[in-house]
Specification:
The protein has about 180 residues and is α/β, with parallel strands linked by helices. It folds into 2 domains: about 80 residues, Alpha-Beta Barrel (TIM Barrel); about 100 residues, Aldolase class I (TIM Barrel). Helix content is about 40%, strand content about 15%. The protein contains 8 helices and 7 strands, in the order αβαβαβαβαβαβαβα. A 7-stranded parallel sheet has the order 1-2-3-4-5-6-7. Helix 5 links the parallel strand 4 and strand 5. Helix 2 crosses helix 3. The longest helix is centred in the N-terminal third of the chain and has 13 residues. The chain is globular. The protein starts with 10 loop residues before the first helix and ends with a helix.
Length: about 180
């Protein structure tokens, strides 16, 4: 579950959605770019206290992830490499990396990512400017080219999720699927 960026507008509804899904997902990726660092800390601490079995990742804010006891960080495409981040922080925690090309997937794997999110596999439902869909064939090739678990992202629905797993994805991620 990737959060939809609405916590700043309606924290009550945001937390209600989180409560609905937190026991059913493996990861909650907190993606709330409109929040200040102080607000994000408060939110991450709340999520970590309610996480059930889900592991909590914070988008691009390793400092906040560490300070709040989250399980890791999710890095945007082009961010620092996973190994360099762990070395700088002198801790070992989960690092997922967003990739938008086959070359990016290979680089993220070489740089020590624990998970790689490949996006967009299909036309995104929530981020209209995410680029052209890569398709299941690119997903399949990417999954075959790395040993790191690859997560399909972008336009994932009940109708196409199985195709992603059949192509080699270790799982699926989404924003819209969890906010409806």
């Amino acid at each position: 579950m990737i959060t939809d960026g609405s916590a700043a507008r309606d924290a009550t509804a945001w937390l209600a959605r989180l409560e609905r899904w937190i026991g059913e997902v493996d990861f909650v990726q907190i993606r709330e770019p409109e929040l200040s660092a102080r607000e994000l800390v408060r939110l991450v601490k709340t999520v970590c206290s309610r996480r059930a079995r889900a592991r909590v990742l914070v988008n691009d804010r390793a400092d906040i992830a560490v300070a709040c006891g989250a399980d890791g960080v999710h890095l945007r495409d082009g961010s620092i490499g996973a190994t360099a981040l762990r070395t700088g922080l002198r801790i070992n925690f989960t690092v997922s990396v967003a990739c938008h090309t086959l070359e990016g997937v290979r680089a993220a794997a070489a740089e020590g990512a624990d998970y790689i999110l490949l996006a967009p596999v299909f036309a995104p439902l929530s981020k209209k400017a995410a680029g052209a869909p890569l398709g299941v064939d690119v997903l399949r090739e990417a999954a075959r080219s790395v040993s790191v678990p690859l997560i399909a992202l972008g336009g994932i629905t009940d109708a196409n999720a199985r195709a992603c797993v059949e192509a080699g994805a270790a799982g699926i991620a989404g924003i819209s699927a969890f906010s409806r």
